[in-house]
Amino acid sequence: MRVAVVGGKLQGVEAAYLAQQAGWQVLLIDRTPDVPARGLAHTFIQADVTANTSDMSNIFQDMDIIIPALENNKALQSLKDLAKRKGFPLAYDEAAYAVTSSKKKSNSLFKELCLPAPQPWPECGFPVIIKPSGLSGSQGIRIIHNREGLASICKGKNPYNGNWIIQEFLEGPSYSLEVVGINGNYRSLQPTIIEVDTSFDCKRVVAPAHLSEALENRFDEIAIAVAEAINLRGIMDIEVILHKNELKVLEIDARLPSQTPTVVLKSTGINMLELLHEIFTRETIPNIPPIADEKEVIYEHIRVGTDSLEVSGEHIISEAGILRYRTDFFGADEALTDFEPDHRNWVATLILTGKTKEKVAQKHRRVLETIRETFGMRECADSFPE
After folding, report:
1. 288 within domain boundaries
2. Residue 46 forms beta bridges with which residues?
3. Higher-confidence residue: 133 or 279?
4. Which residues does residue 142 pair with via DSSP β-bridges, in sequence order?
5. Same domain assignment for residues 238 and 105
6. What percent of the chain is modeled with pLDDT above 70?
7. Is residue 162 predicted with pLDDT exceeding 60?
8. Are residues 106 and 249 in the same domain?
């Protein structure tokens, strides 16, 4: 199997890692030479997919599937047009992505489906959370505690102009769930726990989520309802927050997610990239056996400095240099890292597994202690939203 991954940052790292785990040959394409995913690919081509489609056509004709791992609309359009002309299998659902890449459109969908979600401002009081409508993940997210703070962020602009999403700030644990499928046939996978840093950037993913049966069934109902409403073709992830024992929908994304697919793979053995290949090449969803014997998984990002060890959000990985795959990394089962023995500044994504929650937690503590002791650090900083 040969896969072309277009885009070498967080999504590209995820796609390249999953492909390697499936035993596939990975070609990575990016216009920047030192992107993080380059070290996880067998072959790298530095190219702009919007610049010369004839060159791209020659490259893609030998690929079994093409994975767009970026959010550049011009690049996505170029890939879609080329795939349509040449019949290349491109794992991209343009219509679903158009809805989910806009928080404004997504929130309208939640309202239309009568799904529980945070109340919009000014129907709610303060504090509120403010998000740019068209940016993904945690980009631009802030908590605002009063009208003065809101006015300073919006800088006199009308907060209802569609550029901002302003809604009540809810406290509680966050969970993510992937849905895959096509033509009305959908299957949800394994819920995972999402932990974020002070910038609401995902720093850690944990599985299994250990939700009650009632909450897991409700999560599944919500996810399937959204997938059906957008007529999903491929994959979508949905993030919720558990507030006062009710799951409330935060956001959705119809694209290959970053981070959670690796965690689901390590916990259940299900590789979402293999599912995408079935959907986009055979137009069917493969038979997925019921999940059983889940392993406990902790997946987190760390940054090591001259005298510091910090657990931080995924931005430290997207801003890193070329990552390499390591096993038994300071006691971690696996790691994706730019670590070099003679460098004191590096980052890593740690992947740890265990038979029980207690055992993986013990392993996690040992790994961080080993890194601290090896480099002479006093403590590990692990921040949470304020």
Report:
1. no
2. 30
3. 279
4. 130
5. yes
6. 95
7. no
8. yes
